[in-house]
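Narrative summary of target 7.
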Amino acid sequence: QKIVGLPISQVIPAWPDWKAHYSDVGETYMEVTLETDSGGKKTWRIYDLHISPLNDNRGQICGRLVVLYDVTARKRAEEGMRAQKRLFEGLVAMARATTKRTSLLDTLQSILNMAVTLTGAEYGHLSLLESRETVMYTSLSASHSLTDDDRIVVQSVLEKEIIEWVLRHRHPIM
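Modeled conformation, tokenized:
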């Protein structure tokens, strides 16, 4: 998209507000998010914005130099790195939690609780089925406290629906 020769207020709709806000400030550096229109598709881009005053030969401000540097890709990469870090920390926490358990069932419950926490799910359910379609073990984890009555209802619905689906499709689900 060509912007050379366009008024700055057309390129940056927020410019009048920025100009009024930063008119008495020497140099300004900040990060801004601007909406762009690329072939009818609106997207958001992140920019480093640097505004510097331009002075005439008497030292009076006669204009502003505005530099926008698109940092969208870097910001997305940083967010990806933060997500990977959170995932890694969660996996480490899960590994630590499971190694402290003394039984397989305690370990499975710990893993289920951690999975609910990591994914932000409201509930998590784990069922162990024997090859003869016999339920050997079920467990429920919730992101918040449940009354005994709520726990019974949620557990029975999850067990009935999920176990029936797994048995019908012969495929585990997460």
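The two ends are 44 Å apart (CA to CA).
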